[in-house]
């Protein structure tokens, strides 16, 4: 009997089980524990967003180049490996040229740095994997900018690099592809909340004539970063949720209101995309499901048109006219 139940849970027949498994997800999400959903997920529950990424001055060899973004894994005592492994497999099925992981890899102690590095080392992309750090990667010590917070960030970076992953902390990575004469610049910024961000250092020496993608965990500071020459910014952090929307929140915490929560936003002629992340969060609403984003690069010398996005979600900010 025990073997039957185990097989039933690990090898679901989705037509028969999807409804009650989805109900479990909703119950857990209402208390912020969706990451504790250890059972297999229906692949349709994880949204794979496909977005065209026009870039000026892009080398023609990069046309069709595929970048896959994941964010906010929060590997921890709540978000288990068996939950995240599903997403790793699905990302690998996308046959990416480059994978970027935009922060909040862990929410836990030092042992989770080793574990998430091992997990991410199984990601497969032709040009490898680039990681940046988020506020949770510095633990609770990040905000006070203590030595311990920096030590935890440094240790996570070491674990990732030891397993062949690239980590950008206010640094630039130049990416080439077969047949390209010009490179693609990927600028990875460190976490803003913990005070480790240094955009002047990150963009130092970057030719503004290159196509530039900026990886920045928290999109809240996008306007402050307009002085730097990025074309696209890829962010996470929000889990797709708005905060400080109640009367109490608007009165006492207006600064916490999020202007950019999920999906694509045109910002002063630039392009911001906020990934909803993979792990826990209050994901009761359908548009707040975990997300994997697939960007397909294309050369353009024209102004970007939002219709280039492949969006079907009626609650998306672009289709609501909020772009």
Descriptive tags:
alpha/beta; 323 residues; 12 strands; single chain; six-stranded mixed β-sheet; 19% strand; disordered C terminus; Purple Acid Phosphatase, chain A, domain 2; 7 helices
Structural overview:
The chain has 323 residues and is an alpha/beta fold. The protein has a single domain (46-308), classed as 4-Layer Sandwich (Purple Acid Phosphatase, chain A, domain 2), CATH 3.60.21. It has 7 helices and 12 strands. It has helices spanning 2-10, 14-29, 81-92, 110-120, 147-162, 199-202, 247-252, and strands spanning 47-55, 66-70, 98-102, 129-132, 166-167, 171-175, 184-188, 212-215, 232-235, 263-267, 270-274, 291-299. A 6-stranded mixed sheet has the order 1-12-2-3-4-5, covered by helices on one side. A 6-stranded mixed sheet has the order 6-7-8-9-11-10, with no helix packed on it. It is globular.
How is this fold's topology laid out?
Blueprint: H1 2-10, H2 14-29, E1 47-55, E2 66-70, H3 81-92, E3 98-102, H4 110-120, E4 129-132, H5 147-162, E5 166-167, E6 171-175, E7 184-188, H6 199-202, E8 212-215, E9 232-235, H7 247-252, E10 263-267, E11 270-274, E12 291-299
Parallel strand pairs: 1-12, 2-3, 3-4, 4-5, 7-8, 8-9, 9-11
Antiparallel strand pairs: 2-12, 6-7, 10-11
Helix pairs in contact: 3-4, 4-5
Oligomer: single chain
Shape: globular
Which CATH architecture is right?
4-Layer Sandwich
Total DSSP helices: 7
Q: Main sheet: which strands, in order across? A: 1-12-2-3-4-5
Q: How would a textbook summarize the main sheet? A: 6 strands, mixed
CATH topology: Purple Acid Phosphatase, chain A, domain 2
Which range best describes the helical content: under 10%, 10-25%, 25-40%, 40-55%, 55-70% or over 70%?
10-25%
Beta strands, count: 12
């Amino acid at each position: 009997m025990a073997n039957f139940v185990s097989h039933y849970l690990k090898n679901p027949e989705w037509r028969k089980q999807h409804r009650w498994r989805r109900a479990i997800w909703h119950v857990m999400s209402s208390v912020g524990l969706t990451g504790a959903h250890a059972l297999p997920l229906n692949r349709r529950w994880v949204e794979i967003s496909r977005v065209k990424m026009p870039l000026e001055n892009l080398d023609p060899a990069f046309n069709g180049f595929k970048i896959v973004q994941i964010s906010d894994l929060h590997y921890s005592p709540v978000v288990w490996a068996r939950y995240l492994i599903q997403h790793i497999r699905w990302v690998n099925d996308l046959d990416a040229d480059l994978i970027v992981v935009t922060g909040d890899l862990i929410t836990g102690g030092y042992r989770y740095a080793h574990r998430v590095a091992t997990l991410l080392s199984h990601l497969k992309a032709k040009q490898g994997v680039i990681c940046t750090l988020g506020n949770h990667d510095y633990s609770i010590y990040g905000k006070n900018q203590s030595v311990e917070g920096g030590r935890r960030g440094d240790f996570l970076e070491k674990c990732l690099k030891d397993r062949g992953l690239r980590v950008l902390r206010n640094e630039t990575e130049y990416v080439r592809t077969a047949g390209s004469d010009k490179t693609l610049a990927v600028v990875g910024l460190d976490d803003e909340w913990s005070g480790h961000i240094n955009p002047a250092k990150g963009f130092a020496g970057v030719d503004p004539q290159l196509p530039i993608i900026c990886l920045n965990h928290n999109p809240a500071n996008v306007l402050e970063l307009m002085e730097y020459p990025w074309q696209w910014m890829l962010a996470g952090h929000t889990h797709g949720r708005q905060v400080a929307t109640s009367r109490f929140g608007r009165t006492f915490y207006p600064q916490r209101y999020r202007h950019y929560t999920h999906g694509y936003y045109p910002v002063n002629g630039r392009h911001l995309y906020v990934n909803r992340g993979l792990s826990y969060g209050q994901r009761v609403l359908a548009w707040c499901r975990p997300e994997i984003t697939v960007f397909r690069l294309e050369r353009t010398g024209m102004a970007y048109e939002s219709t280039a996005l492949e969006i079907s979600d009626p609650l998306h900010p672009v289709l609501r006219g909020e772009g």
